[in-house]
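Before surveying the methods themselves, let us examine one representative protein, written as a sequence plus integers encoding its fold.
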Amino acid sequence: MSAQQGKVNEQMSANVQQLQSIFSQAPDLIFRSVDTPNGPEAMLVYFDGLVDLNSINNHVLYPLIEGLSSTEYSLPVTVGNVESTSDMSQVEKMLLNGKSVLFLPGSTEAYIFDTCGWPQRSITDPSIETSVKGSHQGFVETATQNISLIRRYIPNRELKIKQLKVGARGENTLSIMYLRDVADPEVLQELTNRIEGLDIDNVINTGELSELIEDDAYSPFPQLLMTERPDSAASHILQGRYVVVVDRSPSVLIGPVTFVSFFQSVDDYSIRWINASFIRLLRFFAFFIALFLPSMYIAFITFNFEVIPIQLILSVAESRERVPFHPFLEAFIMEVTLEMMREAGIRLPAPIGQTVGLVGGIIIGQTAVQAGIVSNIMVIVVASTAIASFIIPNFDMGTAIRFLRFPMMLIAFLFGFVGIVCGAMLLISHLCSLTSLGAAYGSPLAPVRFADMKDTFLRFPLWSMKTRPTGPGPQQLKRQGGNTPEGGGSK
């Protein structure tokens, strides 16, 4: 009897042949015969390395051998979830997702057991978003664990999860987490439409998903926030935003967000508000230093040297006396060298990478000055720029600033300080035009929303921030009652 294409056959040998043909005799596809004392032989199929062998042996094979009857297939297994299907394509999909499948002779149904057990990484400290006083738990590559980490922070029945499947060749599960009574349902519909509209082989990580669904793909600025911290994700959910958990990725995607969101850190809410405000201002100052300092050096030295004090300009002239290059070329060489050392430090093993970044920077800078290739002032400018870029807490925003530094240097070389002003105006105009899942990216500055400015350049006391940010469009603005500076609620 020949097997019907795409259907589970009554003859187990036909099912085995179908699977061997589908997977081209894959060496890690295991076929295990199940001999029962009172009945015919059954066949259990799974991929080695994708299943938990202890679960298979203790909760599937042993109960089957002890309890499977020749007259009635009662499946006395103790595994958590059991499904059945007659579709061989569904069997194929389940096997590739770590499930085990049981074929019984004379049955046109295949039984699917949830025995997933691939290697998993234990929960460790976040590698990028480190915290001094915050949690030391970071996301891992398993979506179920990441969801449970967020649930621990928000044990509320209104926390909902909407799951979507993406990928034609390697289906991946995306889980959208949100508070049903807080988050804007129109944003959920927009986010769902963008994800369901994807036609792609697979989505491997969160970064790919962000690029595929963001509002403006040509902007250097990230329009969705990625984080590897469960406490940060939970905080954004409480503010009315959506969190997308991508299976097999150690970070989640948050939206809609604003430009200011990329300068906020979880430690801002773990320390005194005055200290947090000072650090927040320091970050924005570092943003301007990292973006404009090299271009301002070029503009002032080339075009607008008259605004520099006499003593300083004499010092700069003495420093540049032996330098044969134009200030633009001098700055370009040093900035490219800095980026190369930074990239080398990331790609090399951690202990070696730190050594390369520190020692390499000192040696190259000192040698370049002694050789007369660059000036002492240029080394100070590049070092200040590098330190300022490290202060920005978000990696994606820091990368955008590192890229934009070079166009600003070119504009300063061509048009001087006037070019820097025009470039800054274009940059501000671009930021004001951006949106994140349809919400204003420049909020609360563009459009102006005074109620939301308590958590922008300054971090006001927590008791004073009684409403949620209006940018994400929350259904409920109130997030706390009459808390007072004296502690507790209003009396």
Q: What stands out?
A: Confidence is low (pLDDT under 50) at residues 69-73.
